[in-house]
Amino acid sequence: MARLLVSVAAGFLFGLGLVLSGMTQPARVLGFLDPLGAWDPTLLFVLGGAVGVTLVAFRFVLRRPAPLLAARYQLPESTRIDRPLVAGAVLFGIGWGVTGYCPGPGIALIASPTWETWVFLPAMLVGILAHRGFVTRRRGAIRQETPMSSSAPI
Amino acid sequence: MMLAPFDPSAALGGGILIGLSAVLLLSLNGRIAGISNLLGGLVGAPAADVPWRLLFLAGLVAGVAVFQGATGLVPEARAAFPPWLLAAGGLLVGFGTSLGNGCTSGHGVCGLGRLSLRSLVAVLVFLGTGVVTAMIVRHGFGVA
Questions:
Q1: How many CB pairs under 8 A join A and B?
Q2: Residue among A8, A25, A95 minimizing CB distance to B55
Q3: Which of A74, A22, A119, A12 is nearest to B13 (CA)?
């Protein structure tokens, strides 16, 4: 129960951060990604602020043997820089550069739905499901080989 | 809603809130606040693993809705943006983050915070391709 409250509170904070910083507006994101236009440094400040906090706080958090409300930390296990990682980042970067939405702001579209909500969100979900189906099929085909790194949760 | 001029304190403040959210979720629940994996994990996850993911996402939407309700600043849809392009981009965002195991929050905010080299590579690659793509789409094809 306490863990669920933490989840909803953390989600709320995340949403507040996204909208306060302007990251729910694709024009801001694209203004950052496109240095040939009127360059908008917002994203740099958002990522800087967020990573500044995690970089310092995670040191102390991960020094503890376990989280306060759960048995263990569930961290991504893979440290390999492999083809799925790079190919995935390339495809995501293209989709991001085209639309101005990454998954967080994509979800945030539900808060004030427009036509963009009903086009982007279902497409993103189909993309996730398509990859899941792709992985399941390949796993079936190459059971003997080492598991794909993309199965590790982040 | 017109795009307001760059506001460094709002950008930094919002970023800090996102960072605090990630710290809260990791320090108490032991989980990484990566949106694409929060979402993707809903598919085929054990039933016990579903509620916290849904609640985080619901909280995110609520946070955005409360802010928009309080300020009256609601983003408008881009009237001239081609729907097929938004759909194609959405497909790539979903497929790519699932294949690469993370997005701006998972690899960016959390992965960089954990000093993960894997995440640093992902961030540099998606930022790089994002920049190249945005320049081509906006200046090569005139879509904004």
A1: 495
A2: A8
A3: A22
Domain boundaries, chain A: 1-75, 80-149
**What is the pLDDT tens value at each position of chain B, 144 positions in all?**
568 889 999 999 999 999 999 999 999 999 999 999 999 999 877 888 899 999 999 999 999 999 999 999 998 999 999 999 999 999 999 999 999 999 999 999 999 999 999 999 999 999 999 999 999 999 998 887
Say which residues have a Cβ less than 8 Å from residue A41's Cβ, sequence separation at least 6.
A32, B6, B8, B11
User: Which tokens is A151 given?
Assistant: 């199965």
Extract the tokens encoding B67: 């802010």
Residue whose tokens read 């910083």: A21
Question: Does residue B120 belong to the interface with chain A, where contact is any CB pair within 8 Å?
Answer: no
Taking the C-alpha atoms of residue B37 and residue A146, their distance in angstroms, rounded to an integer, is 22
Interatomic CA distance for residues B122 and B97, integer angstroms:
10
Alpha carbons A124 and B88: distance in angstroms, whole number: 9
